[in-house]
Amino acid sequence: MPTTRPRPSSPDHPPAPKRQRLDSAPPAATAPTQDEDATTAFVPHLFHPHTVAALAQAYEDSEPYKHAVLDALVDDELLSKVKDEIIGELRFAEKETDIYKVHQTGDLASLNYLTPAQRALFPSLLRLRNALYSAPFRQFMRAVTGCGPLSGTKQDMSANSYRQGCHLLNHDDVIGSRRVSYILYLPLAGAGATGWKDEWGGALELYPVSRRTPTSLPEPAPIPTKRIPPAWNQFVFFEVQPGHSFHSVEEVVVGLGEDGEGRQRLSISGWFHMAQEGEEGYELDRKEDRTERLLSSLEQLSASAPAALTPYPSPPAQFIPSTPLTEHELTFLSTYLNPVYLQPRSLLLLADQFAQDSSLNLKDFLCEALAEKLDAGLRARDAADGLGPERAGQIPAHSAGVGEGWELQGPPHKHRYLSLSASPSPSSPLAAAADPLPQDQDGTDLLRSLSDDLLPSAAFRAWLGLVTSLVPLSHQVLGRRFRPGLDYTLAQAEEGEARLDVTLCLTPQPAPTGKEGKGKGRENGKGKGKQRAVVDGEEGEGEEGEVGGWASCAWGGWECYMAPHEGEEDPAVYRSGSGGGKANGHANGHANGSGKGVEDAHVHEEGSGDVPGVRGPDEEEVHESEDEDAEGEDDDPAEEGGLEIAEEDREAYEEALAMEEADRQANGGANAEEEEEEEGEEDDGSDDEDETGTLLTAPASFNGLLMVLRDPKLMRFVKYVSAAAEGSRWDVCGEWQVGDLQEDDGEDE
Length: 749
Known about the structure:
This protein is of the alpha+beta class. The chain has 2 domains: 34-299 and 633-666, Jelly Rolls (Sandwich), CATH 2.60.120.620; 315-523 and 532-618 and 686-740, Oxoglutarate/iron-dependent oxygenase, C-terminal degradation domain (Double-stranded beta-helix, 4-Layer Sandwich), CATH 3.60.130.20. Helices cover 24% and strands 19% of the residues.
């Protein structure tokens, strides 16, 4: 879930002393202690031994991992006042990365730094916050969960608003000293109502885990087995467990409405941390324990081995840019490709462009006849699976589209999508038939021909060699389907060596607004000029305001490449820190992260792919940042609301801000909202990387080929496809191990 930076809380006040009682006088009234005041913030009988015992038993018996659900936690009158203060006095900032989209306040612990007059704006919110971290409630949480000591000084909570399109993808919350996660729901149904409807989305989803082998790390299943819809005053909590506490938040699919509060999944969420130094229950070995928990979570992100590539059956050909394709290669490729991409002059222009940018974005890549059949076939497949426009923006079942050649892929803390299963025969009907485009082939068959016949072929290998001036050595090709409301990939990277990525995106487009046509939203690719073959920072087709949700990235599904980040503790933030801004609507920049040409790829025939996964922080970095949990960059309520800081708190407040700024710099400036405001103030002459670290973004298109030379450690992802999308994001993606050309002595490397 979205994370925040904790700041120190106000010191606890000692209980007021009782008056001495006289035998002849009635008992004198006493001021309530802080603990007594805290208990009155909750519903009656919450701390009764029978209530605690029943909750503890339910917690012990819960599946898929231990968790508790309280139907009512807080005094209802108090919670209503808390809601009013959050809506009326706090400011929400929209935040979006590869893993989430949410509207979030700053860390509520920072309210301590306001002046007394400003703190007076939040009497109910402060009372609730202090009650949650009070000794009685922390003891209650320990009694139910059986966990170790919980800190009262390290407070970590924020208010979150999930509005239409907001979501949080699969993660386990493991970071630093976090011990228990919690969510207190305040959903709003519009016009002051609190009756949230299940079909509006926003449910908390819990995932079971399993091990592929006895020695492998546990991984979450692709489909959740527990779904908890939000309800007013509902409280959900669970102990943070490395490799077990995987959860996500379903996308909210209902609009805000026109009233002041709107329909939004409002919540207060956060973590209880382990006892800190100086607190009762603190143990010195907790530092070691925190490090182990952190490394365990980072291991989950780097556990996947690099893709297993298939070598070509023949030795590498000597690809020379001036050597034309053979007649046999041209005949085969002309069945699939737009003729413009087979002309010798076009190939020279593409090779020159790739040498400059290490990336190409080609429009109308397939020939017109094949593109027409794919467009119709894929639309029909979505309609048959209940994933087309008639779904009206609702979230489909997790099983939607599975079967008939499509298999569900996970684990969801790294990716979730459908992939085309292995071909039952060595060649598809499209390649073997006398008529290369038979009428009876559906969208799946046509897609399989591209993944099984075209991209792995020797002819396409030769074409890649001419365009990139590289020698393709081995490959992996996969047909993929990203279903609306369900599928995505999260930002990961591989070490070891550069790879050539090729993605043929085949996502049918909606009809441009106000125009007649068949709803394809694309041009036919017939007779396109060579200058349109490469997109290098140019706007797509113009008239962007008339294009539907894929081109504007409103439906997600955009592909992003970004620079790696070092030193980030939180795996969720580490994966997504550079994805803060939406895609810029076109492929741009030098995708290999260096701004140099093809000569920067140092790839050899032997010794490929021996270093798996995503690289996390070095161990030294983990120890250095132990006491500074990098839990997201949040807008501070004091700054956002223009509130004045009390003079006596100024030094502590500025110190906290300095720590936050240092953390932001270490993370490469992940908060896109703040950095966009600074855009244009300084120009160092480099256009290769924006302030968020994004190197290249490409919206989901139809019949577009994206080719990227990906350096080691470069991160990439496909953004979650919103339930608002009118269909699936379809593509055929390939990955190639490549070698450099060396023509001086007439030998290949």
